[in-house]
Design a protein that fits this description.
The protein has 332 residues and is an alpha/beta fold. The protein is 30% helix and 17% strand. It has one domain: Aldolase class I (TIM Barrel), CATH 3.20.20. Strands 9-10-11-8-7-6-5-4-3-12-13-14 form a 12-stranded mixed sheet. Strands 1-2 form a two-stranded antiparallel sheet. A hairpin with a 5-residue loop joins strand 1 and strand 2. 45% of the residues are buried. It binds S-adenosylmethionine (SAM) and iron/sulfur cluster (SF4). S-adenosylmethionine binds next to strand 5 and helix 10. The site of iron/sulfur cluster has 12 residues, from loops.
Length: 332
């Protein structure tokens, strides 16, 4: 079996596969989707568990994928999640498998996921105040997230990373509070700049909280120093807090893009390869797969899909166009 690289015209090689398992979600984060939700993908268009496992296997065996992250929408609402993780780990024990989740219901599934071989988990949590949580997510479910985090820790998932987005006038004054809470609980917090990927197309450059603002807010209460470990292709700039060992990360996707070091490729729940979050073209693996394409043919299509990857997301270009699919339907 020959492994070929998912290399683009700029020499970047994708080894990190993000797989969206559903576009549906049980929260309604206001920077992600509207209160009424979205027009979800019809079930027949969504890849089956076996189709997901096959495409991941092709990525790993034929195309050099070394990390797989399941996301969504909300991946925990995908019924077959544990089985998919178990099968991927059985097929490829050396591949790191992780999950990005809002943690609702994780208290019931964390142990099964750990037993299935899940290596790591990222939980999205923008606030530890119940009222702010309910305002942002439009659901009063903070207690479920906290129970999910506790269960993840009890199941031995380590490290537990927390992703947070700061929103002006909503939780932007809570960055130090969230960091303190994460440090107390042993969670690794990373702040992510808000990106123009909301379904409502309401993102506004002037409104977003920049990495510089995040630093200013944290600096007022903590002593931050650049962490020693090299950043590599990791998007987070990492800092030790008050001399360590606790750390905090900032992912400045908009103001300090890291596109030049990008090693990611995405597969949507309906089987489209996207070479970038901001790509405007997709490549349909599902149709090929369902019409009987061989593993090699699917790998060929995937390789071609990567060639068109653009040098950068271009958010600052006057010609920038937000992609049609929102973050929740691409897989964040
Ligand atoms: N539902 C899961 C969750 O919330 O973790 C997985 C999917 S969600 C789309 C993945 C991540 O994208 C979350 O951490 C969320 O905060 C983030 N996100 C959603 N919309 C975003 C936006 N417009 N800009 C930056 N991050 C966003
Ligand atoms: Fe759902 Fe995640 Fe979007 Fe929130 S950020 S609405 S949890 S997909």
């Amino acid at each position: 079996m020959t492994t070929r690289a998912l290399e683009d015209r700029y020499g970047r090689v994708a080894t990190d596969l993000r797989v969206s398992l559903t576009d549906r979600c049980n929260l309604r984060c206001n920077y992600c989707m509207p209160a009424e939700g979205l027009d979800w993908l019809p079930t027949e268009q969504v890849l089956t568990d076996d189709e997901v496992v096959r495409l991941v296997r092709i990525g790993v065996d034929l195309l050099g994928i070394r990390e797989v992250r399941f996301t969504g929408g909300e991946p925990l609402i995908r019924r077959g999640l544990t089985g998919i993780v178990a099968q991927v780990k059985e097929d490829a024990p050396n591949v790191e498998v992780s999950l990005t989740t809002n943690a609702l219901g994780l208290s019931r599934t964390a142990q099964a996921l750990a037993d299935a071989g899940l290596d790591r988990i990222n939980v999205s949590l923008d606030t530890v105040r119940r009222d702010t949580f309910a305002e942002i997510t439009r659901r009063d479910r903070l207690h479920d997230v906290i129970a999910g985090l506790e269960a993840a820790g009890a199941a031995g998932l380590d490290p537990i990373k927390i992703n947070a987005v700061l929103l002006r006038g909503s939780n932007d004054d809570q960055a130090p509070e969230l960091l303190r809470w994460c440090l107390e609980h042993g969670y690794q917090l990373r702040f992510i700049e808000q990106m123009p990927l909301d379904a409502q197309h309401r993102w506004n450059r002037e409104e977003m909280i920049t990495a510089d603002e995040i630093f200013t807010r944290l600096d007022a209460e903590f002593d931050l120093a650049p962490a020693a470990e090299p950043r590599g292709s990791a998007p987070a700039e990492l800092f030790t807090v008050d001399g360590g060992p606790g750390t905090v990360g900032v992912i400045a996707s908009v103001t300090r893009p890291f596109c030049g070091d990008c090693d990611r490729v995405r597969l949507t729940a309906d089987g489209q390869v996207r070479n970038c979050l901001f790509a405007r073209e997709e490549s349909d693996l599902r149709a090929a797969l369902r019409s009987g394409a061989s593993d090699e043919e699917l790998a060929d299509r995937w390789i071609i899909a990567m060639r068109g990857k653009r040098a950068g997301h271009g958010i600052d270009d006057p010609t920038f166009l937000q992609p049609d699919r929102p973050m929740s339907a691409i897989g964040g």
